[in-house]
Write a structure and sequence with these properties.
By secondary structure, this protein is an alpha/beta fold. Helix content is 29%, strand content 23%. The protein starts with 5 loop residues before the first helix and ends in an 11-residue tail after the last helix.
Length: 285
C-alpha cells in the first residue's frame, strides 16, 4: 500500500482554505448513521461535496450524503462530515482517514465522532448511549501503516489516551445536566460489512468490549496521531449478534438510530457548546 504523499493532503487543504476564505473550523464532526441531519442545523453553512475537493474519495454507503458542511454550530466553528467513508466500502484506511488530516491542516483541534454500534454489554439495553473511553482494534491493518509523515505525528504514537479524558468527563456532565442516561465503555472495531457472528460477540465480551462497530476507530487513531482531542459517542442501536434470537439488519439499525437521535444530538450539541478549546477557552457566544 502506497503512503499518500503529504503534498496531496496539503493540496486538498489549500483548496478548502480558498473556498472558506477566512473561516477556519476548530471542530471536525463526523456523523454516523442517523445523525447526518445535524448538518442542517449549521448556521451560515457552506456545503462542499467531497467530489469537488482534489484527491477526495466519495462515500457510497446508504444514508451518507457525502459532503462537508462548514459553519457555526452552538457557537463553534465546525466542519461537519455529512457522510463518512468506511473500510468495508473498499477504501483503504488512509482513504477513510484522509479528511481528518486535511481538517487538521486547516487548523481543526478537535474531532467529535459518532457512530451506531451493536451492544455487547449484557447489562445495557439496546438504545444505550455510550461515551467511548477506549477501543480495541483487532484488524491487522492500520491507517498509520507505511511511511510516517512527521508533519502529522510520530512513528510510534502513544495510544493510552486516544479519547481525551477531559472530553469524556465533559460528556458525562453534559448528559447528567440534561438528564440523558449514558454509559462509558470500550468499542471493538470490526471491519465488516457482515455483522459479527455470535461467537465473535462472545469473544468480544471476553476481550472487554462493550460495543462493536465498523467505523470511528481509524479516524480516532489518525486524529490522535496528529495531536487532536477526540470525543467518540456511540448509539448502541441493537443488541449484538447472538444475544437475542433475531437476525441483525441494517433496517433495524437505521430505525433505532432514528429513534435515538434526539438524545444523541442533544448530547453531541451540549458537548460542542461546553467544550473548552485546547487552550482552555470556551466557545464564543
Ligand atoms: N455490529 C457492527 N456494527 C454495527 C452493529 C453491530 O451489531 N450495529 C450497528 N453497527
Amino acid at each position: 500500500m502506497e503512503t499518500i504523499p503529504f503534498a496531496q493532503y496539503q493540496e486538498s487543504a489549500d483548496y478548502l482554505a480558498a473556498r472558506l476564505r477566512d473561516f477556519r473550523p476548530e471542530v471536525l464532526l463526523i456523523l454516523g448513521s442517523g445523525l447526518g441531519y445535524l448538518a442542517d442545523q449549521v448556521e451560515e453553512p457552506l456545503a462542499v461535496p467531497y467530489g469537488e475537493i482534489p484527491h477526495f474519495a466519495r462515500s457510497t454507503a446508504p444514508g451518507h450524503a457525502g459532503r462537508f458542511v462548514f459553519g457555526r454550530l452552538r457557537g463553534r466553528r465546525v466542519a461537519v462530515m455529512q457522510g463518512r467513508l468506511h473500510y468495508y466500502e473498499g477504501y483503504s484506511f488512509p482513504q477513510v482517514t484522509y479528511p481528518v488530516r486535511v481538517l487538521r491542516l486547516l487548523g481543526a483541534e478537535t474531532l467529535i465522532v459518532t457512530n451506531a454500534a451493536g451492544c455487547v454489554n449484557l447489562n445495557w439495553p439496546a438504545g444505550t448511549l455510550m461515551v467511548m473511553d477506549d477501543h480495541i482494534k483487532l484488524a491487522l491493518d492500520s491507517p498509520l501503516r507505511g511511511e510516517n509523515l512527521p508533519q502529522f505525528g510520530p512513528r510510534f504514537p502513544d495510544s493510552s489516551q486516544v479519547y481525551t479524558p477531559a472530553l469524556r468527563t465533559l460528556a458525562a456532565s453534559v448528559a447528567a445536566e440534561q438528564g440523558i442516561p449514558v454509559e462509558h465503555g470500550v468499542y471493538l472495531y470490526m471491519p465488516g460489512p457482515q455483522y459479527e457472528t455470535p461467537a465473535e460477540i462472545r469473544a468480544a465480551r471476553l476481550l472487554g468490549a462493550d460495543a462493536v462497530g465498523m467505523s470511528t476507530v481509524p479516524e480516532a487513531v489518525v486524529a490522535g496521531h496528529c495531536g487532536m482531542q477526540v470525543l467518540g459517542i456511540s448509539l448502541l442501536t441493537n443488541m449484538a449478534a447472538g444475544i437475542l434470537d433475531a437476525p441483525l439488519s441494517e433496517a433495524e439499525v437505521l430505525r433505532a438510530a432514528a429513534a435515538g437521535r434526539e438524545r444523541f444530538s442533544a448530547l453531541v450539541l451540549g458537548c460542542l457548546e461546553k467544550m473548552p478549546g485546547p487552550d482552555g477557552t470556551m466557545a464564543a457566544t
